[in-house]
Design a protein that fits this description.
The protein is an alpha/beta fold. It is built from eleven helices and 17 strands. Strands 1, 11, 12, 13, 14, 15, 16 and 17 form an eight-stranded mixed sheet that branches. The protein has an eight-stranded parallel β-barrel with strand order 2-3-4-5-6-8-9-10, surrounded by five helices. α3 links the parallel β2 and β3. α2 packs parallel to α9, α5 packs across α6 and α8 packs parallel to α9. It is elongated and about 70 Å long. The two termini are 17 Å apart. It binds pyridoxal-5'-phosphate (PLP). Pyridoxal-5'-phosphate binds next to β10 and α10.
């Protein structure tokens, strides 16, 4: 599939900035995920809702049969509202509140991914009060470097996420003796935007060792490997669908899975990133001494990734794709120096009023928008 043709007539009259989601890309991505995941006899893919929680997008993902990986009570509610059944919902996060835990128990979600022994104690007590039993996987920090951006790595020893490997046996022993908790297995998640399959191979091997250790005490039914598969931000048109085949094959080769075990995957970015575009209009073209600026009406409040992580997004001039290229810093209207989408970027010459598409913005885009400067939240248009 080659993408990159925009329904300009339908987009041009809309008030900018807004997110444009191409559901054809999303549906093809989901079909590929389901096909490639079927190399496992027993696998479930939980979509990481935090990547994009736009209701229409969630509904399409639910319809494709994926479960949901949630990190707050709000996400659990959003997933249920869009058709994910609670038996396909898992709940992660380092700081689950009592209220969120009670809500998840009430709804009867599939599993809590628990990040500390203190949390085990709280879930056990709340479940007892409600006369329920909570299914639990223990999130273990496998101390693996995901070789990704420092702000999106989560599996290193000094990170706030998960239980330390050296505490594994103690944590499993504690869980299995509790009345209102059922031990289901182990959970991992080492970071995001990982494009080197070797990283997942190393994780799989570490998981194999940890499962053996845990099974000295209790059977591990669920092996949850987390998410983190990256996408090609440079090439949204030629590689709109991530290499799910290589991803699932890596785990199939490297992870030891028995017939009675289920493998869980939690993909976020790789499912929704390429179907979303932030559409913005050029307000002013300003020549500096050495640079020229294209000042657009979208800013870091609409898409914070460039300002937050120095992330790259391809930008295209949809109004005048064939104009001769020029070099610009493309910047937003927010009163912050970090409100820059890209510097020294070659793009078809822009004029006031041109519509630009900031590509690959479906993940960690709209969902992170804020109202700083008392701006309106970006809307969206879905086709
Ligand atoms: C964010 C997150 C994911 C999804 O990560 P992606 O890089 O978007 O695939 C999966 N699992 C957990 C626990 C997460 O926090």
């Amino acid at each position: 599939m080659i993408t990159g043709s925009f329904p300009i007539a339908k987009l041009a009259h809309r008030e900018t900035p807004f997110y444009y989601y191409d559901t054809r890309v999303l549906r093809e991505t989901l079909a590929e995920v389901n096909t490639c995941a079927s190399v496992f006899a027993h696998a479930t893919v939980h979509y990481a809702v935090k990547a994009c929680a736009t209701s229409e997008i969630l509904r399409i993902i639910a319809q494709a049969g994926l479960g949901a990986d949630c990190v707050s009570g709000g996400e659990i509610q959003a997933a249920i509202e869009q058709g994910v059944t609670p038996d396909k919902i898992v709940f992660a996060g380092v700081a689950k509140t009592d209220r969120e835990i009670r809500y998840a128990l009430e709804q009867g979600i599939a599993c809590f991914n628990v990040e500390s022994q203190a949390e085990v104690e709280v879930i056990d007590r709340l479940a007892a009060e409600m006369g329920r039993v909570a299914n639990v996987c223990l999130r273990i920090n496998p101390n693996i470097d995901a070789h990704t951006h420092a702000k999106i790595t989560t599996g290193m020893r000094e990170n706030k996420f998960g239980i330390q490997m050296c505490d594994l046996e103690e944590a499993v022993r504690d869980v299995v003796q509790r009345q209102h908790i059922a031990f289901k297995g182990l959970h991992f998640h080492i970071g995001s935007q990982i494009t080197d399959m070797q990283v997942f191979a190393v994780l799989a091997e570490r998981i194999n060792e940890l499962v053996v250790r845990a099974e000295q005490i209790a059977p591990v039914q669920h092996i949850n490997v987390g998410g983190g598969l990256g996408i090609l931000y440079e090439h949204p048109n030629h590689f709109p669908i991530p290499d799910f085949r290589a991803y699932f094959d890596t785990y199939r080769r490297c992870l030891h899975v028995r017939e009675d075990q289920t493998v869980h995957f939690e993909l976020g970015r790789s499912i929704v990133a390429q179907c979303g575009n932030l559409m913005t209009r050029v307000l002013y073209v300003k020549k500096g001494v050495e640079k020229q600026f294209a000042i657009v009406d979208a800013g870091m409040t609409d898409l914070i990734r460039p300002a937050l992580y120095g992330a790259f997004h391809r930008i295209e001039n949809i109004s005048n794709p064939d104009a001769e290229e020029q070099t610009y810093d493309i910047v937003g209207p927010i009163c912050e120096s970090s409100d820059v989408f890209v510097e020294g970027y070659r793009i078809a010459q822009v004029q006031r009023g041109d519509l630009l598409a900031i590509r690959s913005a479906g993940a960690y885009g709209e969902v992170m928008a804020s109202r700083y400067n008392l701006r309106r939240l970006p809307g969206h248009w879905i086709e």
